[in-house]
Request: fold
Amino acid sequence: MNRLRFSRRYIVLLVGLAVIPIGWIAAWQWLGSNAALPAHERPLVTVTEISAEATGMLEKDGQTAASPEAQKKSAPAPSVEGFLAAFELNAGQGPLDADYFSRMIAADQPYDGDRYLEPSELAFAREVIDRLRAVEAHVGHGRFNTLGFEKVFKVASDLPSARFSVPQIRFMRALFGRSNTFFDYRGARVSEEFLAHHNPEDLVHYPEDGDYLIDGEPSRRFDALKQKLGNSLTLMSGYRGHPKQMLLYLDKVVASDGNLSLASRNRAPAGYSYHFSGDFDIGDRRLGDANFSRQFLKSPVYQATLQSDEWAQRYPHHNVLGVRFEPWHIIGQ
Reply:
């Protein structure tokens, strides 16, 4: 009996010794090249984990990562009729009185009743901004405007200063999925999918302005205005993917100490921006950044837009979408 017990223990010991090297080999293969890096230099998440995390979050919401064609279809471009209909649709969200319109005029002022991010969420916002800016600095301002989140995550995985943690990705995904009331924003959602994007071949590059427009009606409208005005017309901002809009919006939120309402009076949250589906901002080349001020109202460019409905404003005076007057923002299609 003792000899039998000894034999069994000996067999177990041999099996254990055989399994340990296999375990080390599997661990080395799993870690890959990152195993050779110091712990502080290893990426928080790999590209595969990032993609799996993003896809997993979408599947929990009843979504799947869509094909490029499906992604484009998921964000139909708003028509002029649809925009006007949104006025009546969104008017029911609350009373529109003198106080509401005064907030739109002084959009950069905080008001009683404004919505704010929690301190922990504001900390996440700062972390996300730093990483999105690092990716933008790496790929260039114009190209960054065209990227979707999947591409941003892949670029970030190779940049130590831009690697996203899983909690940071979850924060962005959760923020993207919020309803407009969370942001104190009245506009309708433009895109439902966090990973949605337009392919490079669907965009037209304007090298003199360093920006892009969606090929089709948006580029045709801009080209028609360009033919009318010549070199005095400049494309201030064209197509924006979700990462760029996320950066712009969070930048305003952080600058206003977490005030979502103030940010929404000035910029649309990611998923709600019409720049994703064709809208664009124009300006007079001689004005530079002053185009985003009332000086633009005196320019020949602005006067030309008043001569045709083809260049209608998305956010005119006293609109009910909760966005300040933007005479430079043109409906793309």
Remarks:
- DSSP finds 13 helices and six strands in the chain.
